[in-house]
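Researcher: Please translate sequence to structure tokens.
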Amino acid sequence: MSRPSVPRRSVLRGAVRFGAAAGLGSLTACAPGATGSEPRKLTGTPSASVKGEITIWNRSGDLFKVFDAAIDEFRKAHPNVKVNHQAVDIDAKLANTLITGADLPDGSFWDDAKIGGQAEHLYDLTDLIEPYRKDTSPYKLSVNTVDGRIYGVPWDLDPGLLWYREDLLEDAGVDPEGIATYDDLLDAARALKEKNHKAGPIHLEKDPFLGQLWLEMLANQQGTSLADADGKLRLDSKEYRTILNWVRTAVHDGLATHAEYLKQGDLAALEDGRQALVPWAVWWSFAPQQLLKKTKGKWRATQLPAWTPGGARSGAMGGSSFIIPAKAKNPELAWLLYEFLCFKQPGYSAVYGPSNVYPGGLNTSVPSYTPARKADAPLFDPVAALGGQDLWKVTVDAAAAIPAAAPIPSWWAKSVDYLGNNVQRLMEGDMTPDDVIDDSARKIQRNLVDRA
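Model: Translation complete:
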């Protein structure tokens, strides 16, 4: 997604050198001062004798445990660096902490969609990312970029896949590999509905935020997003009309189930066969592994359909990166950790490979760093809950097909009040595609873009 055309953010000036006593070699951090016009940034690389202490925030839950184990590998490589790894409610706490500058961590996990709105409070990591740029997903670089500078360390890549019930498609005579376009997907849904008149085979998302995130995945497939690289709103376009008209057809023809992601109604429809086609991110793999009981082992994944024959067979849906606050006490050491986890071995293998938390490996995303995504060197195992399917191969192929994007605008999450809600009205049959575009574009421009 991209950034709106607004006045450039105020920049932090001057430079001081950090970390001499800690043995940080040539790594420097630009900070506020009286002269100069460069954003606050980190440059150079730490020396082998680096030492010190950092506080790192991550979300609680299984992912925290995965990173905790991976950080143990970092400690082995850098025994003189003490890492205080803390489980925090990132969404509730991080933004306010960045603004106040009090009790900041040295680094934190964060959603890509939220980084652009806080770039002025983050270190510019462009120079440090440079050695890895050519081997990092163009999509992940673009969504971490504001005014040409990179403010997040790209971590996961969340390709879109088509999830399907193998048994139901076989019974309906549908070859999943023959679903090459979204028109084919509608035809597959019609075949399924002929077998089960109660079915609404295609999942349509009822949560406005996730629904808009899903919409952006479909737009990304077509090489577009809500705003372009210059910040101009581009919702009023052929690409968005194509998606919204497809949604209207699915609704009008009774081919969809409108349900909230993995809530009770959604799970019931997945289990009883009413839903059999779910175009969604790779992280939907959580459902058959953890939540679905009756149909566990019956689900499979393949490439998303394309919007036009020969078009991209995937798009990105969500994603997270790591940020370093501009007022962090030890930003250099935070970079060293994130470089290890994202770009170095055994760092990324420790994150994605088999662990006590996930014995078969972490399979709800793949690394954004291309050398870590080798099809013949999987970081996670075939998934038993998918009938032993090699999800790694399917997902890395999808990851390679994701088109580049534009930076995510700082107002993107707020636009859900307009676009996300209007998409729900379309799915409920209360708005037309033109209504959604006209009303959403007008309100986003007036209330968000023009006020940014």
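Researcher: Any highlights?
Model: Residues 433-449 form the longest helix (17 residues).
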